[in-house]
Design brief:
By secondary structure, the protein is of the alpha+beta class. The chain has two domains: 2-246, P-loop containing nucleotide triphosphate hydrolases (Rossmann fold), CATH 3.40.50; 249-342, Alpha-Beta Plaits (2-Layer Sandwich). It has ten helices and 19 strands. The strands form four sheets. A seven-stranded mixed sheet has the order 1-9-10-11-6-12-13, with helices on both faces. α2 crosses α3 (135-144), α3 (135-144) crosses α4 (160-171) and α7 packs across α10 (313-321). The longest helix is centred in the middle third of the chain and has 16 residues, at 190-205. The two termini are 42 Å apart.
């Protein structure tokens, strides 16, 4: 669903942070504040105390398994669903209290919410005129969304990726300081994905608060500054992408060596936990890479690689949400081999669950 602004006035720019101009509206801040939201649909508890804040000047990723409460939360923020308890504020005010709410927040929840027999330009013109906006503003958002070459085609003939661009153009019509997008990468080709990453970052760089829900962790890793991870209607993690990845990386170090047994013995005696992943590769926990290099060098143990492990956002997400997944297919259980520090190495290998 594309929600369009209700005013012809665009937001003036204000430079209140070095290098980060932000949008200024009278009495309005570029923030989303969700506090203790609770919502039931019959016997299903969709939201169970959902609380988080989306700040200006950054892209905030909103992620979680299917059924975690993401769509319900976004609908409550936009006044499309009523919460049983709690509050959702845009710029410090509930959506329903805003005189011209869609000049404060633009959203893309469903790219298919359009009249298919209209041209894309007429779709935007109809939305703009209904809110007192000019054709000039329509042409500006068409250019921003990269739709100029196809804007007179019927919207019903657009691919999903093109409909996403059209929905984004509609969300931008009122130049709002807050933007919310649900799965904006869906249907995008590689060029479109690259464009979307840069576009979302550019919107945040203007001082806007940008909330993006997505299942594509690889895209959020290159786009989002902050992440709100949810499961079973609650917030599991609310942190920066960098901090989440660093935590998931867990200080692990990869060592490649042809002298596996000797390496395991040296490092285990130094207090490390050593896991065997294949014939010549070990994963080390509990020792820094520099210390591992020094120990192996002092002991004359050959190695071809010592590198600190960096987890992906997908790995961090899977670890956080493994107990919050409602729908799960059966998978094979994997294990690897590990040795933990002790008075002596009890053997070359020991089974350990990953």
């Amino acid at each position: 669903m594309s929600l369009v602004p209700a005013t012809a006035k665009t937001a003036p720019l204000r430079d209140d942070r070095s290098g980060h101009p932000s949008l200024a509206l009278p009495g309005m801040e570029a923030t989303i504040e969700v506090s203790d939201l609770r919502k039931r649909f019959g016997s299903t508890l969709a939201l169970d105390g959902m609380s988080f804040t989306v700040g200006p000047g950054q892209v905030t990723g909103f992620v979680g398994p299917n059924g975690a409460g993401k769509s319900t939360t976004m609908r409550v923020i936009l006044g499309l669903d009523a919460a049983d308890q709690g509050s959702a504020l845009i710029g410090g005010r509930p959506y329903q209290s805003l005189r011209h709410p869609l000049s404060h927040v633009g959203s893309l929840l469903d790219a298919a919410a359009l009249q298919p027999s209209r041209s894309a330009r007429n779709h935007l013109l109809w939305l703009a005129y209904s809110q007192g906006l000019s054709a000039k503003r329509v042409d500006e958002v068409i250019e921003q969304a990269g739709l100029s070459s196809a804007i007179r085609r019927k919207a019903g003939g657009y691919s999903l990726g093109m409909r996403q661009r059209l929905g984004i153009a509609a969300a931008l019509l009122g130049d709002p300081p807050v933007l919310m997008m649900d799965e904006p990468f869906n249907g995008m080709d590689p060029e479109g994905i690259v464009w979307m990453r840069g576009f979302l970052r550019s919107l945040a760089a203007q001082g806007r608060a940008v909330l993006v829900s997505s299942h594509l962790m690889s895209e959020l890793q290159d786009t989002a500054d902050h992440l709100v991870v949810v499961g079973r209607g609650q917030v599991i993690a609310d942190t920066s992408v960098a901090e989440l990845i660093a935590t998931a990386s867990g200080g692990r170090v990869t060592v490649r060596t042809t002298a596996r047994s000797e390496t395991m013995t040296v490092l285990a005696h130094a207090g490390a936990i050593v896991a065997v992943t294949d014939r010549d590769t070990l994963i080390i926990s509990g020792l820094a890479a520099e210390k591992i290099v020094a120990l192996l060098g002092e002991s004359g143990v050959p190695f071809s690689e010592v590198s600190a492990h960096r987890a992906t956002l997908e790995e961090a997400y899977m670890e956080l949400t493994r107990d919050a997944v409602e729908f799960r297919a059966a998978t094979a259980v994997q294990s690897d081999t590990s040795v933990q520090a002790g008075p002596a190495v009890q053997g070359d290998t020991e089974e350990a669950a990953r």
